[in-house]
Amino acid sequence: MNTITVPGSHRATTTMSSRHLIDVRGLSVHYGPIRAVHDVNLAVERNRITALIGPSGCGKTTFLRALNRMHDLTPAARVKGKVVFAGQDIYGPGVNPVEVRRRIGMVFQKPNPFPAMSIYGNVASGLRLAGMRKRTLLGERVEQALTQAALWDEVRDRLSAPATSLSGGQQQRLCIARALAVNPAVLLMDEPTSALDPRATRQIEELLESLRHEVTIVIVTHNLQQARRISDHTAFFLLDPAAGAESGKLVEHGRTTDIFSRPADPRTAAYIEGRFG
């Protein structure tokens, strides 16, 4: 099978001339007869945070999951179009979806540490699956990932403790560390702070702002202020009756400052101003 070679960070082995790390072309997603996302074209800039906003049910999470072939795991789901990542269509023939998900990691809405594993074991799990066995290398990479996730100082003396012994915010940072351990180029984040209190939310936001220099981040959020605070670019999705009663479409995409201060589409303005949601 083909593998994905990814540029865009200090860990990269190759470089790209384009500033876009992901280029989505004509993407549609169906669940059986239902078209959940219709004909989306969107370019994601490298080492930037892109926020996906829009009302519930408009296809944001469905679109996000298409960026690393998570829909392969969903019966009756079909994806049409292209997701060009580092110059290669991830839906092309022979591309290994497991390798895609290693290079394009995902963090979910609710923290989901592996309950039967320790803090150390959670972070090391992906490395072990990738074949890393040497203890010194594992230890170094676990420490690095936990440091990247701003968690090392809080857990360094209890790495053997159950992951479930951590607070909710710590568990989410552990999940981020687990994703970072395998050196992804992209982190997809589906409402990563929706289950957290304000203090933990701010910790995650500060973490994402620091990580943007190492990875490209695409985040789904219902919190418009969060999108405004942390993202460089914003994409607004909306249900489009013309494309089908349950079809989500990209209405507008641009710099976050422009989307929030002078949106080009009146529907974007209406959503941002709270006239519907």
What does this structure look like?
The protein is α/β, with parallel strands linked by helices. The protein has a single domain, classed as Rossmann fold. Helix content is 32%, strand content 25%. The chain has ten helices and ten strands. The chain has helices spanning 60-66, 97-103, 119-129, 135-148, 152-155, 168-180, 198-211, 224-230, 256-261, 266-272; strands at 20-31, 34-45, 49-53, 77-85, 88-89, 104-107, 186-190, 216-220, 233-239, 248-255. A six-stranded mixed β-sheet has the order 6-7-8-3-9-10, sandwiched between helices. It has a four-stranded antiparallel β-sheet with strand order 2-1-4-5, with helices on one face. A hairpin with an 8-residue loop joins strand 9 and strand 10 (248-255). It is globular, with a radius of gyration of 19 Å. The protein starts with 19 loop residues before the first strand and ends in a 5-residue tail after the last helix.
Largest sheet: 6 strands, mixed
Rough shape?
globular
SS-based structural class?
A: alpha/beta
- What's the CATH superfamily, by name? P-loop containing nucleotide triphosphate hydrolases
By DSSP (H or I, 4+ residues per run), the number of helices equals 10
Count the beta strands: 10
- Topology order in helix (H) and strand (E) letters: EEEHEEHEHHHHEHEHEEHH
The top-level CATH class is: Alpha Beta
